[in-house]
Every structure is written in C-alpha cells, then in structure tokens.
Amino acid sequence: MRVAELMVTDLKTVEPEATVAEAVAAMIETHISALPVIDAHGRLVGVLSTTDVLQAVAECKDARTRDELFEGTPVRDLMTARPATVDIGTDVKEAAQQMLYLEVHRLFVEDDGMLVGVISQSDIVRGVATAKI
User: Fold this and answer.
1) CA 66 → CA 18, 24, 57, 73, 97, distances in Å?
2) pTM of the predicted model, to two decimals?
C-alpha cells in the first residue's frame, strides 16, 4: 500500500509571514497539531507544530512577552525548517519506519516537489484498524 492511499489531501497551510496567533487559530479551527508552511510558490518550507509554539511560550518571561510572541512573531521565526517528506509513491511501511527513525508524528507528501498531502501516525493506525493495510 502506498501513502497516496492513506494520506490526507485537504490541507490547511500557512505562509511564513503569518503571525503565530493566526497559525494557532487555524490549528484550533481545523483540530490539527501542525501546519505546513508554504512559500509564495507553493513549496513546503517548514512546519509549525504545537510543540514549537509551546516551547516558545515556555521561554516567555511574562504576559507582555507572551502577547508579543503571538501577535508580533511571524511563523518563520518558530517553524521547523525542512520538515520530513516522502514521495507520493512511498510504501506505507517505509513511511512508518521513517517516522519512527526521525521521531516525528507526520510526514508531508510531495509529488514532483509540490506538497500534495500529509500522512500521520494516526492515518496509519486507522488504516490498520480498518483492515486497509
């Protein structure tokens, strides 16, 4: 089975210039824990996860600093650059092994260098539970 058969293709994305507050609002609205960061050409340049945000909040000394983090910080300052990716034709087992090896919860799926989806640990578990794998 290929990742194309299990991946999610309806992706919410964010631009590097968006504020952290905008990105967090999008994550809350869509019930996801990470947003792919896309440049003006539609290329994947990073990922902003709840972990990235929580680490930054933990470093805030007071409420004012925290407010500045959310309202004045662009996503590019907190995102993880060069997120883990797989090709659309990758075998699901290989994708799962990459997640374990890289210690990540998701892999972004690309086709000819363009973002087309994401496959997460949850997607793979769902595939196993529904006997697709």
Assistant:
1) 17, 13, 6, 10, 37
2) 0.88
